[in-house]
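User: Fold this; tokens only.

Assistant: Input:
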Amino acid sequence: MTGERVLPPLCDWTEGGNSLRIGTHSVFVRQDGPEGGAPVTLVHGFPTSSHDWAAVVPALAAAGLRVTTLDLLGFGESDKPRRHRYSVLYQASLVEEVWRRCGIGGTALVAHDYGVSVGQELLARAPARITRMAWLNGGLYPDLHRPVPVQRLLHGPLGPLLAPFTTERRFAATLRSVLGRPVHDEDVHDLWAAASRDGGHRLAPRLLRYIDERRVHAVRWTAALEGYSGPALFVWGPADPVSGGHVLPRIRERMPQARIVELAGPRPVGHYPQLEDPGAVAAALTGFLAP
């Protein structure tokens, strides 16, 4: 057992949300905080779910924010169709439909990992709708993205053959390889439970096509990121081998007006800041988002 538990049990998190029928799919959505609060939408990463945010949502809600979280298609409690052609563009449309159903117009947006690409697509579509933008470790620039070996294997031609053999033990080992600080065994178990529910781990090769999408849309997404005129915050774990400290010099060069919170320690944070140091992430986000 490592670290201290920071997440509420997965079942408690999911019991606080609802399922929306969007097209032919069921999508898990949760809202916290006062109904009249300033809207903020949190978008999770691969291969986990909105449960990633559960340790920071209470602080955002207590600060008066109306927090919307969802499980993207293929993740967590949302449907996981086996033959669906998963794409970042579709996931962005899913978020827009959740906004429509929930009556959300302008909103702040917080994104991590896979959610970073979804956020960049949303920015490219309608930047005026995003009141402010906060980014946690993710592949903002495709040339700086360094996938771990397991991701490269699952993204390759052998991925469909290998994915069914993913176990909780392998999942935990891969997760811990990108962390800078320990995460409690029970938290890791819940992350696996969300990822593997209804055979979700088998979808990894399909979901990892987002790596290719990042290259295809690199010019458009980079322009949306760097051209965004609203307030921008980066809450970054420098010990992340995938999208860590090596990304920060480019952010500082290209977006000098942005605020950067580097979680450098004394023990630096890795790829999952919201799990490794939820207190620091909550403080940075509430200071940036609260009205």
